[in-house]
């Protein structure tokens, strides 16, 4: 299961469906990727996170990205607060495993490159 940190505005609420479940959304950063490859089917704009001007998305939120992406944490002002919350709440690192504060913090402050930009990735 993949994990990804996304920056959001402090009061932003991820959209939910009629049952109260989070609606999966792609990170807005991959819009450029989809728009530049004529072999990929472009998802509709409502399948993407909103795009915020610089300085608006100031809080950290952890997402699972096994699909487009749904939040697995609230938004926090600092990377350290998010790492503490993930550790204290036994958040799933991968396959049911939990991680230490240091491991979560490392993922938050130095996230790996998105899977769609890694060499050899195909649709």
Unreliable stretches (pLDDT < 50, length at least 5) are: 116-123
Task: Please tally the β strands and state the result.
Answer: 3
Order of helices and strands: EHEEHH
Work out the count of structural domains: 1
Main beta-sheet strand count, sense and barrel state? 3 strands, antiparallel
Overall outline: globular
Helix content: 10-25%
Distance between the termini: 18 Å
What would the average pLDDT be, to the nearest integer? 84
Highlighted features:
alpha+beta; 3 helices; 20% helix; 11% strand
Describe what this molecule looks like in 3D.
By secondary structure, the protein is an alpha+beta fold. It has one domain (3-117). It has three helices and three strands, in the order βαββαα. It has helices at residues 31-36, 79-88, 101-109, and strands spanning 3-8, 59-64, 70-71. It has a three-stranded antiparallel β-sheet, with no helix packed on it. A hairpin with a 5-residue loop joins strand 2 (59-64) and strand 3 (70-71). Helix 2 (79-88) runs antiparallel to helix 3. The longest helix is centred in the C-terminal third of the chain and has 10 residues, at 79-88. The chain starts with a strand and ends in a 14-residue tail after the last helix. Residues 116-123 have low confidence and may be disordered.
